Amino acid sequence: MGGAASRWVEDFSPGALKAIGALEFLAVVGLIVPAALGIAPVLVPLAATGAVLLFTGAVIMRLRRGERATIIVDLVYLAMAAFVAWGRFGPGSFTRLTQRGALSQARPRPMTRESLPGRGRLVP
Fold first, then answer.
1. Residue 35 Cα to chain centre, angstroms
2. Residue 12: what pLDDT?
3. Cα–Cα–Cα angle for 89, 74, 84, nearest 5°?
4. Does 120 reside within a domain?
5. Could you give the number of structural domains in the chain?
6. pTM higher than 0.90, yes or no?
């Protein structure tokens, strides 16, 4: 195996490892795809909350195994997921702005000759 950081795998059954891998994959997809494609933005905070729960379990498992040296990476991921969940569920969240229609009001204006600097004349 890959060293002390990967010995935790020995404590879990193959089915549990597949479930953990599937949850991690779903968290990644739920964080990236809705924001990238602009569909179902409510999935982002839900996926971030799921990632918080997943990494909380990882931190607890590392503490129980006494792997304090390898816990830092899990804590960083936990903090990032918590930040995304807080930001997306918070008062200025993307989903709330979308639901209120604030983002749909911020449409770009068409450019006209009058809106250009120098009234549309070419400047050498």
1. 9
2. 86
3. 15
4. no
5. 1
6. no
Give one DSSP letter per residue of 26-52, joined into a string: HHHHHHHHHHHHTS-TTHHHHHHHHHH
pLDDT tens column, 61-72: 889 888 888 889
Q: Amino acid letter at 33?
A: V
124 in any annotated domain:
no
Q: What does the pLDDT read at residue 7?
A: 76
Instruction: Residue count of the chain, please give it.
Output: 124
44: how many CB neighbours lie within 10 A of its CB? 23
Given CA atoms 87, 88, 90, 93 in this order, what sign does their dihedral have? positive
Structural domain that includes position 51: 14-102
CA dist 52 and 64 (Å) reads: 18
Q: Which amino acid is at 82?
A: A
pLDDT at position 103 is: 46
